[in-house]
Amino acid sequence: MASRDVVAYKTPLSRIWNIFTVVFIAFYLLWTLLPLMIMFFSSFKDLLAAFQLPPVGAFSKIGLFFDFTPTTKHYYNLFVNLGFSTYFANSIISAGGSAIISVVLGSMCAYALSRYEFRGKPDLFFWIISTRMAPVVAVLVPLYAIFRGADLIGTKAGLILAFTTFNLPFAIWILKGFFDNVPYAIEEASMVDGSTRFQAFRAILPLVAPGIGAFVILCILFAWNDFLFSSIIGSGGAKTLPPATVQLVQPQNIQWGSIMAAGVVTTLPMMFLGLLIRRYLVTGLTMGAVRE
Amino acid sequence: MASVTITNVWKYYGKTVAVKDLNITCNDGEFVSVLGPSGCGKSSTLRMLAGLEHISAGDIHFGDTRVNDLEPKDRDIAMVFENYALYPHKTVYENMANPLRLRGESEDLIKKRIAFAAEMLEIEHLLQRKPMELSGGQKQRTAIGRAIVREPKLFLFDEPIAHLDAKLRARMRGELKLMQRRLGTTMIYVTHDQLEAMSMADRIAVMHNGVLQQFGTPQDIYNHPVNEWVAGFVGEPPMNFIDCDIVDEGGKLHAVHSSFKVALTEGHAKLLNGALRDKSVRMGIRPDQISISVGSGSGVDGRIKLTEPLGGDTLVNVDLKGADQVLVKTNPDFSGAMDQACTLTFDTSRWHFFSKETGVAYF
Fold first, then answer.
1. B190-206 pLDDT, tens per residue?
2. Is A3 inside a domain boundary?
3. All residues at 6 or more sequence positions from B146 whose CB lies less than 8 Å from its CB, including other chains
4. Mean pLDDT computed over A39-52
5. Which contiguous run of DSSP H or E holds residue A250?
6. Which of A66, A214, A269, B108 is most buried, by CB atoms within 10 Å?
7. Which residues in chain B have their CB less than 8 angstroms from residue A186's CB?
């Protein structure tokens, strides 16, 4: 097999370009990592230490930033006094629940859309994805009325349903692509082997497992980070982390330390999931069983 | 085991007709090959037999059972797909066990059947591997293994060896034929390769444009093609076709072309019964039914255009007078140079005449 490397030759222009690339990446890393770093360190700092900043431009005094005695009092405050353990649990249950529902319904719907031909299929498919085109704010008021009518405001079930409304179309859309890549022959073989259509569907699920795995995590991410639905529909009984964090901003007392700690608590689990998603996405799909 | 009866079956895809009024009867234990170029409707036929496609019109019976409305799982068939269609996440053993598991067979029986199939297919050492770790031939054996552990009524093979390399394909032809004879299961085998059909099948159904052209034994189809299309499709290298006139000279019929005038045999003349006198027909003759010698002599004059030595045989392209060209298959000792004059002799007992309009064979 021939090498798949891209052949590149050095020219003066490419050298300048290389330097530019390095500088760009350096700035980009600073831009993305610095806020996270400040958040992480500040969450362990006393309020006084957190505001001790070196003067602008004085890079020699950068050490001041790291000069503090670590304290976990903000985390203690968060979980013991402010009830963040409940919010954390709410976040996990509602995000996880909606991800599971989205993936179960989504994979069945995606399979049907991938395999069956019927009248109006392109329109149906477009309608499904178009439900994600309108901004959530636009439908929030009617949705609120419906949810209140169904007595779902402030319940975890209501929140799961709300998250599912935006996760499910996305699930169908992405998973259809994965099912399209699975050759018909495998499920046909399964049906000839003696399975029903539903068993045949289950037989090819392992082939779309990378897609489903990646997608479960994406769904959790979206739901976990959602602010609008959780603050309106989850308000009261099913508050999740993002709206709970915002409530730490009070007119007379902005609890910076606790806000930073809440930020860390919200961000870390998703960062770990992000690492997981990578592995799933690069896994091959059909694993070489079918010769195309 | 069962016989298969296909009665007046049609298959439409929207407005496109894939299979037209198909009638095939396949006896219990018979090896029937469905042969034709791509798009001829042979795969649609097989998929209708499997139950993977609806039958647009007509009936299919396995034995006495009408299967039109049965799901694939209820038809008691096993199918081998062109691209093997193994479950990539399962081992060879699990792939073969799958159809038995779905039927709730006991582990003992599964083990016994797989051992039998694996021994027959010589894949015992591969049972714990996954499809990714197998070569094309091994994958194909696994797919066949999955079909035979079931001990079904009917085997459906959809070009199972089309993707293998030439050497392995030649070997698998023999093995598949042997396997079918040993198991004695009725087999319908779809292929576009006339060599596979000829060498393996008891009977061949030749299809073209959705229409069954001829259904008969390999010898029958080779020696008595019913029309020009079958004559041209079956046989390698393909049959030569030359337009000529049938002329009555002194009470004897002759085939007349600008470069030859050859008398018809008594038998053929009788078959034609004078009906074609002074008519233009298309003569067909196979490359190995022409003999060739260098230099001019009493026979059909031609000029060597190209020789292709194949080792065991030599193919010679000969230009006839006029625009016609014939391909001759001769022995490897033939030593004609390009552009040399040569003489051809037709084996007139084995040539064919086809109608110029309809392509139908006169004999």
1. 999 999 999 999 999 99
2. no
3. A189, A193, B78, B80, B86, B95, B96, B98, B99
4. 81
5. strand A249-250
6. A214
7. 85-88
Question: What pLDDT, on the 0 to 100 scale, is given for residue B11?
Answer: 95
Judged on CB neighbours under 10 Å (0-12, 13-18, 19+), B325 is middle
Q: How many CB pairs under 8 A join A and B?
A: 91
Contacts of B106 (CB under 8 A, 6+ apart): none
B353 Cα to chain A: minimum distance (Å): 42
Q: Beta strands B57-62 and B65-66: pairing type? A: antiparallel
Instruction: Tell me, yes or no, whether A125 lies in a domain.
Output: yes
Write the CB contacts of B138 (distance below 8 Å, at least 6 apart in sequence).
Answer: B123, B126
Q: Is residue A288 part of a domain?
A: no
Q: What is the pLDDT of residues B240-286, one digit of tens each?
A: 999 988 888 877 888 888 888 888 888 887 777 666 777 888 999 99
The dotted CATH code for B240-355 is: 2.40.50.140
Please tell me the predicted confidence (pLDDT) of residue A292.
38
Cβ(B347)–Cβ(B285) under 8 Å? yes
Look up the ipTM and state it.
0.82
Contacts of B86 in chain A (CB under 8 A): 186, 189, 289-290
Asked if B72 lies within 8 A of A191 by C-beta distance, the reply is: yes
